[in-house]
Amino acid sequence: MARSLLPSKNREAARSARARLHRAARREIHQELAEWSKSGDLEADPPAFAPWEAREIRDAVNWRRGGDKVNPFIRWATVRTRGLRREDRLSHVRSLVSKGVIGEHALGHLEDTAAFRDPVEAAWRNRSWLRHGRRRRAGLMDRGEQAQLLRALLEEADGQRTLNRFLRERHPWPRTLTAPAAAPCHHRPRAMPPYRPLLGAHDVLPFLDSLEPNAHGRYSSAWGTLTPPVHWMRLFLQRFKEHRGHIPSVRAALEAEGLLKPLPPEGVRAPGR
């Protein structure tokens, strides 16, 4: 039963995601090292090499683990331990499964199920998760930080052009969303606002005003109902902040993620122009 958890339904996609993350990190590191070596200051500290990679890899691992086929094992373990006390169930299953990575992997999926979860520990985890959620919401970019990042973006070479090109390429994305006619109204794609570029420093606040929240007053909602300019603008600013305002690194990361088309070489016209 423990071995039945090993085949994941997301194996190929997980490998592709891992390769994409490592490729984006390598490209960023190469560009950071090139900029650092060009400065000629040997006393300067080397840049932080892709500090976001560990978090992204951890999220990819959790996503892959979510594709494991765990329901047969959970049902089997629940039936085998139905007559035992709650605190003895996990240790009993540990004695049944094989020792090593396979057994620990199976027990890791079993610890958070209702039949094996400790109520006291679950309550403590819920309180800890609520505190984490409050800290996370406090760390989100507010309007003032967005305006500050946009002004810093305008001071960088190709910053404004890269942002507008990113928003223009991401803008047609919701047009491909479709929903059945019988789908609830809140699950249907909504009308997309027109493409709105950033015109300059004088346009920072009007640009933010043009990014309207959804009908519930929030900037995110169910899949397919997200207001695209808000989502993509915030994603670009997050990348801009993570890469410390270095536009080539931002552009390389977005290209590696498949969110931005690479620029053609100099002297070569882009298709359709």
Topology:
Elements: H1 11-39, H2 53-65, H3 71-80, H4 86-96, H5 101-110, H6 119-138, H7 143-155, H8 159-170, H9 204-209, H10 228-242, H11 247-256
Helix pairs in contact: 1-2, 1-11, 7-10, 8-10
Structure description:
- This protein has about 270 residues and is mostly helical.
- The protein folds into two domains: about 1-140, no CATH class; about 145-255, no CATH class.
- Helices cover about 55% and strands about 0% of the residues.
- It is built from eleven helices and no strands.
- α7 (about 145-155) crosses α10 (about 230-240).
- The longest helix has 29 residues, at about 10-40.
- It is elongated and about 70 Å long.
- About 15% of the residues are buried.
- Mean pLDDT is about 75; it is low at about 175-185, about 185-190 and about 215-225.
What is the total number of structural domains?
Answer: 2
Shape type: elongated
- Distance between the ends: 58 Å
Tally of strands: 0
What is the arithmetic mean of pLDDT? 75
Rg, Cα atoms, Å: 24 Å
